[in-house]
Design brief:
heterodimer, A: 344 residues, alpha/beta, Rossmann fold, 2 domains, two-stranded antiparallel sheet, 13 helices, 11 strands, globular, B: 441 residues, Herpes Virus-1, 3 domains, 6-stranded mixed sheet, 3-stranded mixed sheet, 33% helix
Chain lengths: 344, 441
């Protein structure tokens, strides 16, 4: 029972890529359940308010991942400048969160439109995640002498099990593989849980791994009109209570990695034994550590390679139809194929 | 001559013993000799005076000094500055290290381990340190595997199989009643056992034996030098941490196999010796010595598969490794066979299956975050009022008397994205996350 009564910290990382939100808002033929940014924001704000309302000591931080830029939208430890008009009927903490989040998002999105790039930069989800980790690190550190001077007497207590909730709409960005993995390991060190809600688009391999490795839950939103219900039922309770609530668990965890050479997401890769760099094709020299590999190995691996090319080409779609690639593999009958044929 | 003297004085004032340097300015030669002797003596004392039985103790609280206001901030900042400087001075040239390691931990379980010269007993202390060692070792060598072998009653006893899971290894040495020391140790028997368990390993992985040896004797059935030669040909590194005294054969084992040998003087030194063996050993730079054209025989390109993990709630099916019905497991990406645990070789198609997070744990060594530069003055600082990482508000006045490497305005700037960070985030980014929040890489 102690778990329920304890205050907790929640950092929310919101993916605000305009392009994907536009895709997500399109009507029936493309999306069964369209979800626009405006309706998403209203549901998100309701969720944030619920978290604050759960317990007075609960702390909250919201980070936005914009194309090529990440900013902190709100944090409960930094005083927000009081907005001009306060509604008499609104609970002040709710209004502080709502106005801060909406104002900053609008300001950032307006700035984006002014710039009017030809190609939209991928959203800086990793930067936002790293900021969330820095913030968690800041509040988990006991208040030091430095902060005492300027924090106006507000000391966020050291809260147990901090959580980071990632609301993502973008697909995997292969260039961010290494930073995401690094973030996962630091979240493990901070004992922070990473929850992931993939609101739009296919499963993301890396965020799946993030949730799996930090003990969080990963949910691919199917009924997107029921977003708030998903948020409140699965991401509001801290991980300690979720076992009792039987929150939806992850179906399969995909441990694929991104190769260093072409940033492809691969399920069979070639790994340098010296630096463990992953490549999608056999190379004569490791591009990371400049190790030369024996020619014999290259020949052996090249012989097995055509099978892999087809396997990865067909196997990277949403549902991972690997059985299909297996059929190609069997028909091909190369070095590795002979073994695989025997197996079937 | 006077110049040299001045230099010398400077050096001397650095060392902790500074007696009588103002007295004899005239007798330069004499003073120099005298000082040197004192200094040597001081150094010798620092290393010698630490035997357990001499019952000296270190007062760690003395090294932290309060400032006039009774605050420890100065000491903490000093310590941080040292960390910063160490990072900046870290060698830029890459060192090649073995990443895939295989280690057999050889524990002496003979009666001599019951000696109480290390508290509570050598045996208990060894077990405790071994646990800490294993945890730390797996943290730094995520792809490594450890097996445990015990030496007691004249034979080598397999305590834990080679495993890449720290929990398995810890479980093997968890029960101290099963490891109760008995009889004489046998170096040869247990090294042979360890060697045979590493015979099958591929060439690009390292083979190591770490012996924690408390005895002064070994009781062998044959010539131990044959075993030693076999280890040399099998390229097995043997390192020994002795708890009693140096034995010729132990020293020889280490020297001939390029391992490390050390005799623990006290509990702290024992731990230091043990933990020195945790960082992956630097590989000999074969290619550099033989010119750039030579290929390193230890380097190889390996084909690896990254599996899919099946959830605990999936319908049970037979695994290929044990032929048992299980629901959880991993699917080989090439042949879709189900194996129980990774990393392993697929039993069906022989593909090496690893979980990619294991590999990724080492990547921050390959792509480190560039060190941040300290912003030295308010005028130099950017307009941002808060840290780019954690949004903590920066101080508006410059601190006076900040030491080298520390920013007086508490700002550290990333050379890539020009974001400014507080000192806490600077340390956190470089030591823990290895991701710059500004650049996102």
């Amino acid at each position: 029972m102690d778990d329920i009564s304890q205050a907790s910290h929640l950092s929310v990382v919101v993916d605000l890529s305009p392009m994907h939100w536009d895709l997500s808002a399109r009507e029936a033929p493309e999306n069964t359940y369209p979800l626009s940014l405006a309706s998403f924001l209203s549901q998100l704000l309701a969720f944030l308010n619920t978290h604050i309302a759960c317990r007075h000591e609960n702390t909250l931080a919201v980070f936005g991942a914009f194309p090529g830029k990440s900013i902190m939208l709100y944090s409960s430890s930094d005083p927000v400048s009081p907005s001009a008009e306060m509604h008499a009927n609104a609970y002040p903490p709710f209004q502080a969160v709502d106005s801060a989040v909406v104002q900053r998002i609008t300001a950032e999105l307006d700035a984006l439109e002014l710039r009017d790039d030809e190609e939209e930069a991928p959203s800086a989800l990793v930067g936002a995640l790293a900021k969330a980790l820095c913030y968690v690190n800041r509040i988990t550190l006991p208040p030091s002498a430095n902060s005492k001077a300027q924090a106006n007497g507000f000391h966020p207590g050291v809260l147990p099990d901090p959580r980071i909730l990632i609301l993502s709409v973008s697909p995997d960005l292969a260039t961010s593989y290494i930073p995401i993995m690094n973030s996962i390991f630091s979240a493990q060190k901070l004992k922070a849980t990473i929850d992931v809600c993939q609101i739009y688009g296919p499963n993301t391999v890396f965020l799946q791994q993030a949730a799996h490795l930090t003990g969080g839950s990963y949910i691919l939103l199917e009924r997107r009109d029921a977003l708030l219900q998903y948020l409140i039922m699965s991401f509001l309770p801290p991980p300690s209570i979720r076992r009792t609530l039987s929150v939806p668990t992850q179906e399969q965890v995909d441990f694929r990695a991104a190769c260093f050479c072409h940033k492809n997401i691969v399920d069979i890769g070639f790994v340098c034994s010296v630096c463990l760099s992953i490549f999608c094709q056999p190379l004569a020299v490791c591009t990371t550590c400049r190790t030369k590999f024996p020619i014999k190995t290259l020949q052996r691996l090249n012989a097995a390679r055509p099978l892999l090319a087809t396997a990865t080409a067909t196997g990277n779609a949403n549902g991972r139809p690997r059985v299909q690639s297996g059929a190609v593999l069997g028909a091909n009958g190369g070095v590795g194929g002979a073994v695989a044929n025997g197996a079937r | 001559m006077p110049r040299r003297d001045a230099e010398y004085m400077e050096v001397d004032s650095d060392s902790d013993i500074s007696i009588g340097d103002g007295t004899g300015r005239k007798g330069k030669g004499k003073e120099k000799a005298g000082d040197k002797r004192k200094k040597d003596k001081g150094k010798g004392k620092a290393t010698e005076a630490a035997y357990t039985w001499e019952a000296s103790y270190t007062r760690s609280w003395d090294t932290v000094q309060e400032d006039e206001a009774g605050s420890l901030q100065g000491a903490v900042e000093d310590w941080m500055a040292r960390g910063r400087r160490r990072r900046l001075l870290a060698p830029a040239a890459p060192v090649r290290r073995t990443i895939i390691r295989h280690l057999v931990l050889l524990l002496d379980l003979s009666t001599s381990m019951l000696d109480r010269d290390m508290r509570p007993t050598r045996f208990d202390l060894t077990l405790q340190y071994a646990r800490e060692f294993i945890v730390e070792w797996f943290d730094q060598n995520p792809l490594g595997q450890i097996g445990v072998v015990g030496m007691r009653a004249g034979i080598g006893e397999r305590i834990g199989e080679m495993s890449g899971n720290p929990q398995d290894v810890l479980k093997a040495i968890a029960d101290r009643h099963k490891l109760e020391p008995v009889g004489e140790p046998s170096l040869q028997n247990s090294i042979e056992l360890a060697r045979s368990s590493m015979n099958h390993l591929p060439t690009h992985s390292s083979r190591e034996i770490l012996i924690i040896f408390g005895s002064l004797t070994t009781c062998d059935p044959g010539n131990i030098h044959d075993t030693l030669d076999a280890c040399v040909t099998n390229k097995i590194r043997i390192s020994v941490v002795a708890l009693a005294a140096e034995m010729k054969i132990c020293r020889e084992l280490c020297d001939k196999t390029a391992g490390q040998f050390g005799v623990a003087m006290n509990e702290g030194h024992f731990k230091d010796l043990l933990f020195e063996l945790i960082p992956p050993p630097a590989q000999k730079a074969l290619s550099r010595a033989a010119g750039a054209g030579a290929t390193n025989p230890a380097a190889d390109l390996m084909m690896m598969g990254f599996p899919t993990r099946l959830p605990d709630a999936s319908p049970p099916s037979l695994c290929v490794c044990h032929s048992e019905l299980r629901s959880e497991g991993f699917l080989c990406p090439r042949c879709l066979a189900k194996v129980c645990d990774v990393p392993t070789d697929c039993d069906v198609c022989d593909l090496m299956i690893v979980s990619s997070p294991h590999l990724a744990r080492s990547y921050h060594h390959l792509f480190p975050v560039k060190p941040y530069t300290a912003v030295m003055s308010i005028a130099d600082a950017s307009v941002s009022i808060g840290c780019h990482g954690c949004a903590r508000v920066f101080p508006t006045v410059a601190l006076t008397g900040a030491s080298e490497g520390l920013s007086p305005v508490g700002r550290y700037r990333c050379p890539e994205c020009l974001g400014e960070f507080c000192s806490d985030c600077d340390v956190f980014v470089h030591d823990v996350t290895h991701v710059c929040p500004g650049c996102g890489k």
